[in-house]
Specification:
Low-confidence stretches: 21-25
Largest sheet: none
Number of domains: 2
Number of strands: 0
Mean pLDDT: 89
Structural class: mainly alpha
Order of helices and strands: HHHHH
Number of helices: 5
Helix content: 40-55%
Bound molecules: heme C
Shape: elongated
Length: 120
């Protein structure tokens, strides 16, 4: 009986441990190691848009009248349609169902820092 209680306790501890790890993983961009390479539209940003944005921001009638299927549209959205702010917003994020993970947001920040390039 004692053995079962000990096993139960162990399982509980592992569960708690994995939960706290998950929370740490979802930490903020500032907790991450800096990216030491140039981030471009072709290297990373296009895949992020394709995976998380173009279901709404693509096709014949893109939502918010914003198409994110091309480099120049995505660059323009970063320059003049608050793309970066919306991706980081706590209250009004893009995508609407919640901010993407910090690793992705860090890539977008680095793309801005590197000058919103299409490719190297
Ligand atoms: C489920 C659909 C959906 C997804 C997925 C989505 N969006 Fe949006 N987006 C909208 C809608 C609807 C609007 C217009 C209403 C608003 O501004 O909240 C909008 C507005 C925006 C705007 C503001 C445009 C402007 O000129 O005001 C930006 C920038 C934007 N989205 C970027 C993104 C990015 C970047 C992604 C992916 C990381 C994304 N969205 C994913 C539905 C979506």
């Amino acid at each position: 009986m004692k053995k079962i209680a000990a096993l139960f306790l162990l399982a509980l501890l592992i569960l708690i441990q994995s939960c706290t790890t998950a929370i740490i993983d979802e930490g903020s961009v500032s907790d991450l190691e800096p990216i030491d390479r140039t981030v471009t539209y072709q290297s990373d940003v296009k895949a992020i848009m394709d995976n998380y944005c173009i279901t709404c921001h693509g096709g014949p009638a893109p939502q918010g009248s914003l198409d994110l299927t091309t480099f120049s549209n995505t660059q323009n959205a970063a320059l003049s349609r608050n793309l970066v702010e919306r991706m980081n917003s706590q209250t009004n994020p893009m995508p609407p169902n919640g901010r993407l993970n910090p690793q992705i947001l860090q890539l977008i920040d680095k793309w801005v820092e590197d000058g919103l390039l299409e490719q190297q």
